[in-house]
Design a protein that fits this description.
Layout: E1 2-7, H1 12-21, E2 37-40, E3 45-50, H2 55-60, E4 66-70, H3 71-77, E5 82-86, E6 92-99, E7 112-116, H4 119-129, E8 133-137, H5 144-147, E9 153-158, H6 162-166, E10 169-178, E11 180-184, H7 186-191, H8 193-206
Parallel strand pairs: 1-3, 1-4, 7-8, 7-9
Antiparallel strand pairs: 2-3, 4-11, 5-11, 6-9, 6-10
Length: 212
């Protein structure tokens, strides 16, 4: 039996569609369901529905053999997991944004206050630029921080950019591109190699083609 942790939220819909294309079907599982554990009849596969930030922990410690999570989470947490496959769904970018029209001053003497739920990525980014930074950790509504004067900039995921535009914010830099990734527990890869190799192969065949 292979146990796979899937991300709650926006990523769940496209992930379920991908698993269905790969031949893993369960009638009871949908993005609207409140259940957290599902089985795929005849497939020796159990699916767990987990908060995205918790998935690398589940996989690293072996509570799940594999997981599907955004690259942004992996960059932030730097967990000891194997990452064999870019699933090519849930594409977005991790960007720095600031109020439109406001002068952006990256002076060594000026400490920049940044709101984000990615403190590690943010600190690394500004350290590479040699810019002193004060990081304010938030868990939601990041784009509100510059509006109310809590921060000068934000670091957050951006997809269409409509939310930034609605709050009069503009992207000033892209730190990284993010898509959903399949991650695997290192011990499980040895002990359940055949099952996980089959999972990887089927998801690889079912994922969208790479954009030209």
């Amino acid at each position: 039996m292979i146990t796979v942790a899937l991300s709650k939220g926006k990523l769940l819909g496209p992930t379920l569609a991908l698993f269905k294309r790969a031949g893993y079907v369960t009638d009871s599982l949908s993005p609207e369901s409140r259940r957290l554990v599902f089985t795929c009849p005849g497939q020796d596969l159990t699916l767990l529905i987990v908060r995205p930030s918790d998935i690398p922990t589940y996989v690293e410690y072996g509570a799940a053999d594999a997981g599907v999570v955004g690259k942004d989470v992996l960059l932030e947490q730097d967990r000891d997991v194997y990452e064999p496959l870019d699933l090519r769904v849930g594409a977005c970018r991790l960007s720095v944004a600031a109020p439109k029209g406001r002068a952006l001053r990256d002076r060594l003497s000026a400490r920049v206050r940044v709101a984000t739920k990615y403190p590690n990525i943010t600190e690394r980014y500004f350290n590479r630029k040699g810019v002193p930074v004060e990081i304010i950790k938030l868990y939601g509504s990041i784009e509100l921080a510059p509006v109310v004067g809590l921060a000068e900039r934000i670091v957050d995921l951006v997809s269409s950019g409509r939310t930034l535009k609605a709050h009069n914010l503009v992207e000033v830099d892209v730190i990284a591109q993010s898509t959903a990734r399949l991650i695997v527990n290192r011990a499980s890869l040895k002990m359940k190699h055949a099952g996980l190799a089959d999972l990887i192969a089927r998801l690889k065949r079912g994922r969208p083609k790479r954009a030209q």
